[in-house]
Amino acid sequence: MAVEEKSNEITAIPxxxxxxxxxxxxxxxxxxxxxxxxxxxxxxxxxxxxxGLKENQPTLAADMGxxxxxxxxxxxxxxxxxxxxxxxxxxxxTEQRDVRVIEIPKQSPHRQxxxxxxxxxxxxxxxxxxxxxxFETRFYLSSLPPDAKLLSRxxxxxxxxxxxxxxxxxxxxxxxxHRLLNRHGVQSLSAIRRLAVSILRxxxxxxxxxKNKRFKAALNPDYILNILxxxxx
Length: 233
Description:
Layout: H1 9-18, E1 26-29, H2 36-44, E2 48-53, H3 58-73, E3 81-90, E4 93-103, H4 110-113, E5 119-129, E6 132-142, H5 148-173, H6 183-201, H7 210-219, H8 221-231
Parallel strand pairs: 1-2
Antiparallel strand pairs: 2-6, 3-4, 4-5, 5-6
Helix pairs in contact: 1-2, 5-7, 7-8
């Protein structure tokens, strides 16, 4: 859903949520979605949420940082917590991810003001490549129980959208380089590009990327017709 002129994502997200059947789903949103009204809207539709947390909510972010510091100081003696760690090697580097999930104490005022807020998830990522190490820490808040393996999977799925869809739009269709100014034209082309990527991904036999599949379809009409026929089966 396109953001209206002189508006922002905060007003567009609730309108998008209204169009979706969310019962039983887990809704993940970037830090922009950390708004009381959005959280309440998700819970009213009987869905869970996991939303990024940064300084756009300064008091909340500071208090969650304090909760983590306090837990580290006491070895989480008075907190319900869970940890899940993974190590992966790819692209010439090693990535270690530690996800610690803390159940926010029931006496926390934030559990009263944020509907059904339950857990804080802290992701510490360490990437080592060519003998150099870099670190990254991310905070998330969720209505889900303190299950680190579950929340780790949800967080990875969220970033999978960024890595697969958005990256494909930029690399395969060079979407970021387009300079179309007509608002309706932008929306229409965006929908067509996403439809095209979805169709090309239905071809699992060709072990080539979406960009090469697009080129193959341009050279060979029978190739794309075969994919379209398979969609009807």
